[in-house]
Amino acid sequence: MAAVNLGSSGADRQGADATGTAHRGRKPAPAASAPCAVGAIVPGATPAAQGGPEHVTEPVAYDAILLAGFGGPEGQDDVIPFLRNVTSGRGIPDERLEEVAHHYRHFGGTSPINEQNRQLKAALEAELASRGIDLPVLWGNRNWDPYLNDALAEANAAGHTKLIAIATSAYSSYSSCRQYREDFADALADTDLGDVIRIDKVRQFFDHPGFVAPFVEGVRDGIVRLVAADPALNPVTDVEVLFATHSIPSTDAAKSGPAERGFGEGGAYAAQHRAVAEVVMREAGASDVPWQLVYQSRSGPPSMPWLEPDINDAIAELPAAGRKAVVIVPLGFVSDHMEVLWDLDNEALETAGEHGLAAVRVPTPGTHPAYVAGLVDLVLERVNGTPVAERPAKTELGPWYDVCRPGCCENVRLGFRPALAGIAP
Ligand SMILES: CC1=C(CCC(=O)O)c2cc3nc(cc4[nH]c(cc5[nH]c(cc1n2)c(C)c5CCC(=O)O)c(CCC(=O)O)c4C)C(CCC(=O)O)=C3C
Ligand SMILES: [Fe+2]
């Protein structure tokens, strides 16, 4: 998280897992020099993925939804083992992990993220039931209990063989897309279910109306709240909307979408955020209010370029531009988890105060009814094989791919791991 340098040297990465962690559900990444299985058939992948359509428009009789979360600790004793899982393969010593642990320790060692996913699971189940759709929701995390392995064991015990995954992550990048797909492949290998269970994944949903709607409400409401508190504020000259997302290494950003589409600075990752932010401002009736895309939660060595500007630096510059108030929009996040609570509600709001700015933080989608309904719609478009032209997308960039493109969201730092729901490799 913010300002914590967790970078490891290349030498660290060559060894498997220097922390010696006995983690479940994940395997250390192989060294970057591992042979790349170009064109290989990946067990458990959609048969169609091997040939390569961008969208799957044949109906598929999925028998369960796999809700794939990040996972988080739920007590002080979980914190370091959780952080070892997250940083597995990067050889980071426990003393350095303790720096990040500080954020979790502050909240009693518990991240709210698991409870938020329990609530999302319940909300999805209620939405499915209200539409008469008989699809169980299995929940598994990448980094904490219940792990993806547990969810697959549960699927197998119930006789489910065709899973459609929803990852709790809306945009394209290694951390928000491919890492989930690699962990699906790992979990099938770990559980020996690669020949039995197939896992497909819904498209990245950054521009799906269900994901966008809560932010539109939030921005509209945020400006109203600021003006209510200070009626002299003129939103067009005095307020700035900061759309905040997770910073990622610039090398990851450059690889976040198909290279041939030329997304410009920050790759598909930044382009998706910029496009959604524009839609949000327009739909909130705030197109004439100034806004910018900013980044948070950077880690890694200072020598490694990550996407900028940092939200705190951006806030510090606002008074000189004549701004008196700021609306902070966690556009890159689906729930109010630790990165939102600590890096925005704790740090960014404090920075705003230090610079004499009034500030509000907009909610994340969480279990907003539009978001929950949107996720069910994303599953149904795969169940029904909905034609691409009928799939909702609020930006020109989407509807994003059902089947990730070759090399999409590749990680050039941590080495190759096989991934599902994409064209190999
Ligand atoms: C793009 C992105 C998302 C959004 C998409 C998505 O939601 O998936 C996200 C979400 C999250 N990240 C989270 C936590 C952490 N992320 C870390 C590290 C990193 N994240 C990265 C990127 C992202 N992360 C990157 C590039 C790294 C460096 C590692 C590397 O080099 O690849 C570390 C290690 C310490 C550190 O490095 O700061 C922790 C503890 C939590 C859980 C919060 C909770 O517990 O409530 C959540 C939801
Ligand atoms: Fe992260």
Automatic annotation (TrEMBL):
Keywords: Cytoplasm, Heme biosynthesis, Iron, Lyase, Metal-binding, Porphyrin biosynthesis. The keyword Amino-acid biosynthesis does not apply. It is an enzyme of class 4 (lyase). Its main location: cytoplasm. Its EC number is 4.99.1.9. The keyword Endoplasmic reticulum does not apply. Belongs to the ferrochelatase family. It comes from the Bacteria. InterPro entries: Ferrochelatase, Ferrochelatase_C, Ferrochelatase_N. This is Coproporphyrin III ferrochelatase. Pathway: Porphyrin-containing compound metabolism; protoheme biosynthesis. One of its GO terms (biological process) is heme biosynthetic process.
